[in-house]
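Working notes for the structural subgroup meeting. M.R. asked for a predicted model of this chain before we commit to crystallization trials. I am recording the input and output together here so anyone reviewing the notebook later can reproduce the run.

Input as submitted:
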Amino acid sequence: MAYSYKNSKGTTYYLHARDVRLNNDRQRTIYFFAKEPRDGALERVPAGWQVMEGRNALPVLSKDK
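Returned structure, recorded in token form:
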């Protein structure tokens, strides 16, 4: 079951992760939310991160303080 977040407008988003290669040939994991669960959906929020809601009600991951 993918991690889901319901924003203040009532829309449900699902957390995903993907490994990408940067221009300097380094690997980086990016996290993003989508309206539908697909390949790469995560079961929980990664350790050290928290879900916050931006000004336009879109969920984003932010590092814990």
